[in-house]
Amino acid sequence: MVATKIQTAYRRHLASRALRALRGLGRLRSVIQGQSVKRQTTSALKCMQTLDYL
After folding, report:
1. What are the CA-CA distances from residue 23 to residues 6, 28, 33, 34 (Å)?
2. Which structural domain range is residue 49 located in?
3. Total domains in the fold of the chain
4. Which of 1, 6, 25, 46 has the fewest CB atoms within 10 Å, counting from its CB?
């Protein structure tokens, strides 16, 4: 079976949607990881400050 122009265009559309979704997941993941790193850094700094006072 030979794919028609419509089928090809539809497959291209689906592929671009999937790629966009993957990029969105990547962005979301980086934001979440950034927040957890901030939290870890804040916690470490607090611990270091309490050790400094001792």
Report:
1. 26, 9, 15, 16
2. 1-54
3. 1
4. 1
DSSP conformation letters of the chain: -PPPHHHHHHHHHHHHHHHHHHHHHHHHHHHHHHHHHHHHHHHHHHHHHHHHH-
Q: What would you measure as the largest C-alpha separation in the chain, in angstroms?
A: 78
Taking the C-alpha atoms of residue 33 and residue 49, their distance in angstroms, rounded to an integer, is 24
Supply 20's token pair. 């966009």
Instruction: Give pLDDT tens digits along the chain (54 positions).
Output: 567 999 999 999 999 999 999 999 988 888 888 888 888 999 999 988 888 776
pTM value is 0.54
